[in-house]
């Protein structure tokens, strides 16, 4: 039984066969003849090409992440219980940064806003640029909090009169009582402090859902704006809890903020009161 070896391949490539091919020695063959032809793989690339493609993909991913964080959406870690039971400590929420370029802030929205220069202390700068970069990455991924961003529910818009409380202990907006049982912390009252504020132009009155554990507009009434925050400080609307899996859900506006009477009173007030709109 005969096998097929290197000699058979060389003979086939030289164009000869039979005894003549067997007798022909290496010297009788033309230079370069009798060697296996080099194989070319159309999909084969040098290692440098792979590294280039990998760096390009990583760069595009980073660019996409940065642009998404800056203009579209960002995950935030909620470290406190001021929004319980709607949002619990350790939850991560997804914040829509684009929505307020399309529509205005609405009552009942849960918003993330910056307290820098108003509610919050100046952020402590890290001495190490590497540590700052590391913390920024964690914050962008929703794995850390920068300590100057807050999350609250919008109760009053510019021009609204927000007060506590009516004889039944309910907060009123433009004289219309809010039915807050659907989102307040179980057993919580609307507020333990009384207040009566007309929201200035370009500002918002915000409160946490866990009223006894929330430092919100009620605690800043001696500050400029009487506890309200500037609309320009709003980062975006928290529209979903994305972590942990057991808590994943959307964060819609409660129905009490769609009361027809509230809207009619607000529309009437906006005609005679301060104009509404984002602060410049």
Q: Give a quick account of the main beta sheet: strands, pairing sense, barrel closure.
A: 8 strands, antiparallel
Q: Distance between the terminal alpha carbons, to the nearest Å?
A: 93 Å
Mean pLDDT: 75
Rg over C-alpha atoms, rounded to the nearest angstrom: 34 Å
Give the percentage of residues in beta strands: 15-25%
Number of strands: 12
Describe the model.
This protein has 280 residues and is of the alpha+beta class. Helix content is 23%, strand content 19%. It has 5 helices and 12 strands. The radius of gyration is 34 Å and the shape is elongated. The N and C termini lie far apart (93 Å). Residues 1-32 and 268-280 have low confidence and may be disordered.
Task: Give a summary of the structure in a few sentences.
The chain is built from five helices and twelve strands. The protein has 280 residues and is α+β, with helices and mostly antiparallel strands.
Please write out the topology:
Blueprint: H1 6-14, H2 18-23, H3 47-71, E1 73-77, E2 92-96, E3 110-114, H4 129-140, E4 149-156, E5 161-164, E6 172-173, E7 176-177, E8 195-198, E9 203-207, E10 229-230, E11 234-243, E12 249-250, H5 260-272
Q: Which descriptors would you attach to this protein?
A:
280 residues, eight-stranded antiparallel sheet, four-stranded antiparallel sheet, elongated, 12 strands, single chain, disordered N terminus, alpha+beta, 19% strand
